[in-house]
Amino acid sequence: MKNRRKAREFTLQTLYQADVREISPSQSLKELLSRYHFRQEVEDFSRRIVKGTENYLPCIDELIKTYAKNWTLERMAVVDRNILRFSIYELLLVEDIPSIVSINEAVEIAKRYGTSDSGKFVNGILDRIRRERAIDGSLQWTYLKKRLNDPILSSLIKFKQSEKIYLVGGFIRDSLLGRESRDFDFILDSADFKLIEPFAHSYQSSPIYLDENLVRVVLPNGYQLDFTLKKTNIKSDLKRRDFTIDALALDLDYVESPNLCLIDLKDGLEDLLNGKIRLVSPEAFDVDPLRMLKAFRLQTQFDFELDEGTLDMILHKYKLINQVARERIKEEIFLILSYSSSSEHINQPCARKLFEEILNLPCYPENLIRLEKILNSEESPLYSLKPPILDHLQEKVGHRSRIQLLRLINLIFSFEKNEKLVETAHKALKLGNKEVKFIQKITNLTPVLQKLKDQSPDSTKICEFFSLSGKETVEICLTAIAAQPEGSVWMRALVEILSVFFKKRSVILNPPKLVSGEELINTLGIPAGPQISKILKKIHEAQIAGKIRQKEEALKLAQEMVEQK
Questions:
Q1: Does 282 fall in a domain?
Q2: Phi, psi for 90 (deg, rounded to 5)
């Protein structure tokens, strides 16, 4: 420990001399070592710290400017400035020394060689840097470093040669939270996109020019790379971004040292640690009103808190959402609805207001809350059916999962106010045909199910209902429970109906074909037409009820229906 302390003090002496004489740290080190002799351990450690500090000095000084609030480098005492310089390098890039040791050593040296306030000043800055950037801190810097070794990034770095490219936004945010992301956003310090084409071609892909300032490259295995051209400088560009946790940038020249060289102008790392979503600037929603929806998507995705200023801004500017293309709104809404926690966040007054403005319909987030409780609570009567229900809800209808569409339905469905619901939702979100038919079926048949609440699950009327509802029986039952929780009797009835559905699912959805329409025409001597469809439907209902299993039984039922007519 004494040798390390001596080495740090010599490092301070070296950097101090370089600073005052305006020479390089390497030159200063060479001169001092020619006059003084130290133990080899002292010299080796000091040389390591001086060289490392010199190599990263621009990044270190930017970091000091960021964390020393209300201070410039020039105003700092020379001793304090240089203690911070070598201590930041040691704290963030010398991984074999615990961060707390690096800080304690820096504080003790500051107390000895600085002013009476130096120890407190140095400790305050280093402790915040440790909290946000140390490898052994709460953010996942080790995981980010691993992800930055992705072969695609390595390939892009080779193609860029001397050009500056900055990785920005979501990839950094997600990696620091320990989440995998394959979406990369880059800012090019270039006048054009000429390097992107050969890069894309190396992966047998082609760049997609979305506009004059945005190019997308889609690669195998779900990778998507978006490139934008720098408008002025990287700091100005970051100030135009939406939220602080997305206003993070890394020069690709420094992928080996992201915790030291990451650019964070707006305390995005602090907000990541505190789980807070905060606007970069008050004008962010004016630039792109879709960011209001994105705020709730991020809140839902990460279970973060929206700060009061952002919530107030949404309340004042929610009508701006009408300026946004409906296709973009649709994508953001369905991203929100892909998370089970969406119900809690949509229930916020400003979120409800925003959704009602978008959908032009009353919204009932309380129904969504009940739906999630039904699906996920261990006390729910449906808990024993949870595995088959969740498997069912992961299936796709068009481009959306059933659970996303179910959440949308439960957000807008009401037994009392159901007129033109589907038409209005379709207009608001530009839904696909399969999605519209799915929603139409649920909203039409849920009131039908409500009228059958006193029927036995094996009754003829329930079997008739199964033949109508088919695969959507699950969504209809869940919507009925969430939209009108009439108590334990209603709940038990629907649980029983769902139990019967899963028990008889095969015969409901894929009944054995006992007789064809052509056979009915030939055997019974009746003409082709609606009567054939009606007979086949009754045969299916009888199969669901377990009343017929053989072809002879199906023909007998058909004969009886003809005779009754």
A1: no
A2: -65, -45
Average pLDDT on 215-226 reads 93
Structure tokens at 247: 């206003």
DSSP 279: B
- Provide the angle, in degrees to the nearest 10, between the axes of the packed helices 78-93 and 40-55: 90
Confirm if 355 and 346 have CB atoms less than 8 A apart.
yes
Q: How many domains does the chain have?
A: 4
Domain's final residue, options 274, 303, 331:
274
Q: Which of 524, 521, 510, 559 is nearest to 538 (CA)?
A: 559
What mean pLDDT comes out for the span 181-189?
A: 94
pLDDT computed for residue 489 by the predictor: 75
Q: Which two tokens stand for residue 249?
A: 């940038």
In the chain, the amino acid numbered 47 is R
Check if the beta carbon of residue 60 is closer than 8 Å to that of residue 259. Answer: no
Question: What secondary structure letter does DSSP report for 242?
Answer: S
DSSP secondary structure letter of residue 253: G
- Residue whose tokens read 């960021």: 66
What residues are paired with 167 via a beta bridge?
186, 250
Q: Exposure string (b/e) for 177-198, b if CB count within 10 Å is 16 or more?
A: beeebeebbbbbebeebebbee
For the ranges 142-156, 219-233, 313-327, which has the lowest average pLDDT?
A: 219-233
Phi, psi (rounded to 5 degrees) for 154:
-60, -40
Domain boundary among 274, 306, 333: 274
| Res 486 pLDDT > 70 | no
Using one digit for the tens of pLDDT, what is the confidence trace for 358-415? 999 999 999 999 999 989 888 888 888 999 999 999 999 999 999 999 999 999 998 8
- Boundaries of domain holding 375: 292-508
Helix (H/G/I), strand (E/B), else coil: 189: strand
Which residues on adjacent β-strands are paired with residue 226?
Answer: 185, 216
Confidence at residue 302, expressed as pLDDT on a 0 to 100 scale: 95
> What's CA 35's distance to the chain center, in Å?
58
> If we measure between CA atoms, which residue out of 277, 253, 275 comes closest to residue 263?
253
Q: How far apart are CA 435 and CA 389, in angstroms?
A: 19
Identify whether the C-beta of residue 67 lies closer than 8 Å to the C-beta of residue 38.
no
User: What gap in Å lies between CA 358 and CA 430, rounded to an integer?
Assistant: 12
pLDDT at 305: 96
Residues 342-348 have a mean pLDDT of 93
pLDDT band for position 485 (cuts 50, 70, 90): low
Check whether residue 231 and residue 296 sit in a common domain.
no
Could you give the angle at which helices 517-524 and 551-564 cross, rounded to 10 degrees? 60
Same domain, 316 and 424: yes
pLDDT of 565: 63
How many Å apart are CA 204 and CA 466, to the nearest integer?
Answer: 49
pTM metric for this prediction: 0.87
- Would you tell me the crossing angle of helices 78-93 and 57-67 to the nearest 10 degrees? 110
Shared-domain flag, residues 522 and 549: yes
Whether residue 79 is found in the same domain as residue 170: no
CA–CA gap between residue 443 and residue 476 (Å, rounded): 8
Tell me the three-class secondary structure of 343-391, residue by residue. HHHHCCHHHHHHHHHHHCCCCCHHHHHHHHHHHHCCCCCCHHHHHHHHH
Confirm whether 287 is domain-assigned.
no
